Amino acid sequence: MAELTGGHLVARTLRQAGVRHVFTLCGGHILPIYDGCLSENVAVVDVRHEQAAAHAGDAYARLTRGIGVALVVPGPGVTDAVTGVANAYAARSPLLLIGGAAPLGLRGLGALQETEQVALLRPITKGAWSVAETRQIPEVLTTAIRTALSGRPGPVFVEIPVDLLLAAVEDRLAPIPTGYVHRPRGAADPDGLALLETLLVDAERPVVMAGGGVYWDDAAKSLALFAERAGAPVFMNGAGRGVLGTDHPNAFFHTRGWALGHADVVLVLGTPLDFRLGYGRPPTFAEDARVAMIDVDPVELGRNRPLELGISGDIDIILRQLVDALPKGLPDRVAPWLAELRRREGEARGKLDELAATDARPISHYRWAREIAGAVTRDTIVVGDGGDVVNCVAKFVPVDRRGSGSIPARSAASASVRRSPSRRSCSARTSACCWCPATAPSGSTAWSWRRPCGSGCRSRASSATTAAGARSAAHKCRSSARRGRWPPRCRRPATT
Amino acid sequence: MAELTGGHLVARTLRQAGVRHVFTLCGGHILPIYDGCLSENVAVVDVRHEQAAAHAGDAYARLTRGIGVALVVPGPGVTDAVTGVANAYAARSPLLLIGGAAPLGLRGLGALQETEQVALLRPITKGAWSVAETRQIPEVLTTAIRTALSGRPGPVFVEIPVDLLLAAVEDRLAPIPTGYVHRPRGAADPDGLALLETLLVDAERPVVMAGGGVYWDDAAKSLALFAERAGAPVFMNGAGRGVLGTDHPNAFFHTRGWALGHADVVLVLGTPLDFRLGYGRPPTFAEDARVAMIDVDPVELGRNRPLELGISGDIDIILRQLVDALPKGLPDRVAPWLAELRRREGEARGKLDELAATDARPISHYRWAREIAGAVTRDTIVVGDGGDVVNCVAKFVPVDRRGSGSIPARSAASASVRRSPSRRSCSARTSACCWCPATAPSGSTAWSWRRPCGSGCRSRASSATTAAGARSAAHKCRSSARRGRWPPRCRRPATT
Amino acid sequence: MAELTGGHLVARTLRQAGVRHVFTLCGGHILPIYDGCLSENVAVVDVRHEQAAAHAGDAYARLTRGIGVALVVPGPGVTDAVTGVANAYAARSPLLLIGGAAPLGLRGLGALQETEQVALLRPITKGAWSVAETRQIPEVLTTAIRTALSGRPGPVFVEIPVDLLLAAVEDRLAPIPTGYVHRPRGAADPDGLALLETLLVDAERPVVMAGGGVYWDDAAKSLALFAERAGAPVFMNGAGRGVLGTDHPNAFFHTRGWALGHADVVLVLGTPLDFRLGYGRPPTFAEDARVAMIDVDPVELGRNRPLELGISGDIDIILRQLVDALPKGLPDRVAPWLAELRRREGEARGKLDELAATDARPISHYRWAREIAGAVTRDTIVVGDGGDVVNCVAKFVPVDRRGSGSIPARSAASASVRRSPSRRSCSARTSACCWCPATAPSGSTAWSWRRPCGSGCRSRASSATTAAGARSAAHKCRSSARRGRWPPRCRRPATT
Amino acid sequence: MAELTGGHLVARTLRQAGVRHVFTLCGGHILPIYDGCLSENVAVVDVRHEQAAAHAGDAYARLTRGIGVALVVPGPGVTDAVTGVANAYAARSPLLLIGGAAPLGLRGLGALQETEQVALLRPITKGAWSVAETRQIPEVLTTAIRTALSGRPGPVFVEIPVDLLLAAVEDRLAPIPTGYVHRPRGAADPDGLALLETLLVDAERPVVMAGGGVYWDDAAKSLALFAERAGAPVFMNGAGRGVLGTDHPNAFFHTRGWALGHADVVLVLGTPLDFRLGYGRPPTFAEDARVAMIDVDPVELGRNRPLELGISGDIDIILRQLVDALPKGLPDRVAPWLAELRRREGEARGKLDELAATDARPISHYRWAREIAGAVTRDTIVVGDGGDVVNCVAKFVPVDRRGSGSIPARSAASASVRRSPSRRSCSARTSACCWCPATAPSGSTAWSWRRPCGSGCRSRASSATTAAGARSAAHKCRSSARRGRWPPRCRRPATT
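^ inputs. structure came back:
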């Protein structure tokens, strides 16, 4: 039996949930949590703007396919984190934002930084809670974590008044739940499986669209098996980028528009039919294409376009079921379709290379992108921002991370709320940066932690950048990053 | 090509979704929808308080396992429906509430009955929308319907300004979506299935708790097969009541507390571990019981109590998988456990019968319940209200509806928001009523539609009711109901 | 020093705030408050549907120009009260709704009737709070009361978990605030006053529109003085009806449309320029009329129409300032305008009388209204519902209550959320009822408290009603009411 | 007659409302507004993070005592502005945030940057609207502006879908309202005035606490007259700092705690009794002090502490009424009280000067503050951030701006949501910066507009800063600022 403060209960609950790092901008209302983190060996990463903390927590969640945590003071701390939370909401990322709060004992009196936080966060989270008693901290936090991780993942918010963090309770009165998260890997039912098989067997011009769900369900390997078995071309978007390597024979990149417009069967895996896919409608999709979709969220099934079949379940499991069910010989049947796509892919690639060969000054987006690409290795984490530029860079920088466990963070910029982890605290609008190691949320943060880092910018402010300059910046970034270590050791940040 | 009003688009979209009846209290803002219903052959059932309309739409949804629709004027019409919507939310019932709205062209000026409806309905629905253009009516309504029916079902709200209902558009500009609802019947993955099998094979004192999910997944038959295969006793609650008939040898009713308190394995099917089950905690559940749970909503898995296993999927499919997987011979193994339960069940039954034998005046709850039970046949729909009384009546009135398609409406009163379809518009607090046919939402409505109906009340106001009086009222109700016809033919209600 | 339960603290705080009656439908979650009410001599009026409780609390607030209180159980109790709260919100009535809540100690576990109440009530209240500690009960309640009464009045909501109501604290730790409501009676500044005077002195065809603000500011007497001084015709709407008696020479009723359409100066007192006044725009208001407005809520000043002058302050004080400032002789100047209005008023009255003379069967609205009017005395409280019928009845039933302290409850039906206190719990749609004494919220409630009461209905269900029948019903109602006593003595209601 | 786009309507409405500058981070969804601004001669100031735009709009509102406007793209643009809006909400600043929105015609389909913005902004604004038709743009914007400026000022939000901005309508169909804002300057009623007078006449140890309301009501001059007439010491906080110059004999700075703790009468002008004033309770306020308060928001009257008197009205008008009402001779009566305060003020000043004399390295806060103070002139705008440091600097930097029209922006940091305009986009945590001219929202913005600017930081990163370094930085900042011009000429920003 021991007495623990509320802050210690927070840290112990997080640690037990497997959390090793929390991201924060330190402040007085949440000090007891830092102390708890020291005791529980949870590293506290201090950043310079709470937006960076939220983005970093999001990135941590994506990298680990688990909960990511940002920890902020009430009032401006919580409001500063809003963009990061909204981004995680759009990207289905299980971020837990823990906000301090004015003391419960002063609620309503106009205490320092007292703000209506739960109502504010509700529209951009799967759930938002205010803790009412110290002993309930583990229960509320684990409820939030389960909510974030279950079904369609997404961010959650918990606010904890500072007096509850300071108060101590006996640990037996505030037990930390166990066995509270179950992420069942749903399979397809026999009828659904049979219909899916029929669709694929009958297809002459199949297309597979692989989105973030393939990444979240860790289905890269079964996708490769399936693509080979079905002979189908695979396009990737969002966090799905990289689930097939650039050298996989069924992976295609530059002919998505033409392929979707001419396909007779489209299998959509873990990506919504939103603006990025023309809402699944003509002219992006052929009018009479037969479309099937697998997604963790059943509400996405039938959204914007009629489906032949919608299945809600685990993409890895279902692809394995499919591989077992499909007859041999399908690749031969669709070989002409693949050949035509390959021819067009080559043409498109050639045109891009031409565009990137220019020496025009200021540097063209294409040339700049090619220089970035030249500095990127398999270990590089590329973080970009700014829709147009990111779209351009994405055509050149290979994303090839089978087994690497890295995160397609760049895809954040394509999400409907498009902010990458690093963006907003850089002093200039960063068009693309190369960071390593992974979760460095911002330049100033990295610098404050004595992490080497660098960035290659192409903003208005540096519009005179030449190809040589871009190349130099990118390489400098990469080499300095090699000298860095990450993550920092756990220590309590100084307060300001 | 034809021109359709917005009101007609509403009716056509509903009809295409399989809706045959809508429940309403008629008013000017939604008149164009009534006209559309006449054209599209959707029956309009006019009631006397919008709360009754919402409860009736909820009941319709439960009976049909599909969408139920209530249609109300803006302002007080929508606010009057709030309790019905909240009830549907607690009970996971796919009710679509369509609210009129002040004209879009006058928004913000303080128009008649202008109210902030979407924000009001949001906390008690799965989604709430305001239609912005006439041509979007089919899209918004089908989005709402998909949301209501997908995953964990629940109510939704759509408001449509009256000017958009009056405006006409060419039908080709407002196509009604098809193939927009997919209710995939998820199966268990192999690992989950194996673990579940192991739990059951090892169990010495298993208990199955069957809730509303068993009804929604239409799993009554596979539950019976499973119970027989596993030899497990089955208790039912909520909308799960009646999925095993009273004469099924594995069905138990009066020993739930003892059984859960002594079980070593509990399989929870489609019911949350909320207050009705003591939060799955001691003393209701044995401290060391191993608990597995199947629920459509993954967020319920691990809530309030550690689970050995949580599966999100279709209960019917998964029970069938289990029946195939379980070895023979399990019933012999657990026979002593069942024998003990049967002995205790008999004792409990005997005590209840004693309590109900009294001739005390005013009539005791138990006696009164027994008289009601005597008047109820398999075809009777029992609608009750008032927590204590309903709990008592439930012990006497058999719910036995294999294949009958009827609705365990009584269970509404056990839900955390406990209001039954009929309650609030009766002039006295109705403790229990016998209605037939099914969805009659209130006495005055039935009367207005010239439906025979009746009720047996036990309220303070009738506390002198004797056993004879209760019996007489209940029988009168049943016999008059036999003469009724339902549903009424479609006609446009008079406006007031 | 004494120990008080949370429930007792509620009652004591209410009593200290001058509350003598609370309206409720009794239930377990709020029992400690009833006990407190017994100790503190606050009468508990038990009704049959929480909607009636909320409407009654609203009526109490209007009658007393102070706080009115409804007290309901969590979940369905709170949702049932929503229409009453929304009505109070539209009518600017300071209703305090106190809702029970599931125990704080079980928050989030799915406790009985646990519902997200604060978010639900927020869109229709000036503020909504959840109490976090027993000792904060007086502070939160008084904050709610101050919010309800300050500036533009309106409803508020406070939820109190049942464990906090049961817990006892020393009274010195939970002091009840004093001096916490200040309703400053703001005067006009010199510039504003001068401009207002100029407008009136220059006017040839002035019109005064007196709304509910005149009632709330208790400005009937100063309005009469002002009207006489300025010689201006006065029309009344909403809760302003009756502030000038029907026999006052400046009071007009049947020519509002013509007058506003021809006025050169309109002074709007305490009523918004919403749908009831054609948004202050042509054709209701003359295009070039110069409009000035006095309202407690500055946001209403300039809404929908340009104003020459907008003043936010106390109507009584400002009218007194005006009376002092205006020169003598104005009535002579505008005499022709008044004469013309009087001629038209007589014509309109004649036409109405003709319409009401018919013996047609079923009875015409006009005749029916005249019969109601014949049964109404100065002491009668008229409660109506159903927009069209109420509009008709309002033309015949005189509202003449100088000094009577009665409430123009009928006007509720003209408000944008139009529900009168009695409506929804009557078993038939009540077109108009005559109640006495004042706040009887419904027939069944009155009956349950052994109050004589009656009603005259004109619904579809009684469409054969004749003039004789209407007259008989109305007189019966009045005479039975005379025998009643009100309010009931304080006693604890039985629980169900 | 002319055709105008929705974007042009926005700009024309703003221009007509007196807005000369809007602050933005440019993006595609709001381009039509920029075009409109070019036509209507509204300067568009492009910044590097939407948070800066919101803070700048807030600062503009404070400087002009009128509406300030920030203009942002949907999704991340709006979420980035949240902190700025929340800050304006806490500081009662009339900021209008205009957010772009996904096309109305694609609402609900998952369009680029589609986000639920209105619900998000509601908890931190006085009102939030979504425009439904192009022709309603002027009406909605003017409604928002009236709401922001009326009564207690505060921020508002309007979102406008991009298709409505692009669509053109005839200007006569979308008239821009006039005369829609009235900010009545309420006077005290005779009773209130008399009571106030009595309090002051009887006082032996009076204290006046002057907050932001004195600034907003432009009451600096009448406050000086009143203080001299009453002989009362005046303390200032929040935006009230500087309303009395540092050399005014009744202005006090360093003895507030002692004075409030010993006063017998406190007059609180335009500042809430929140955490900054110890909630108006002991030990900050004497237990038996008689407190009167004047505030624009009547809900503040009686909050946290009983008041003898609460008045809601214009502070300038009421102080003038008071000056006329008060008898002569009061200063003599309270002379001993002032003498004692002056003695203590001198002592406190001396201690501070001692603290600031240190040469310790790293530089002490006090010394650093003194160096900043030495570089500040009457024209300097001081922008600070970081609670502790700001509190320290505030003791040294004189705020003396009678008639200067400058803004006490530093006080933002004392507000409960404490972020100053410049903070968050600086690459290091800025403890204090000296900006000139006024509204420069951030270093990178200033640089992008070729504005000279500078800053003096005392962050961890520069903790070795010496006194000489601080002095040098501050002077460099000031001198470079002198060369700048502001505001920039209107031009359309480049898009990215």
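DSSP finds 18 helices and 15 strands in chain A. Chain A has a mean pLDDT of 82.
thumbs up if we can close this ticket
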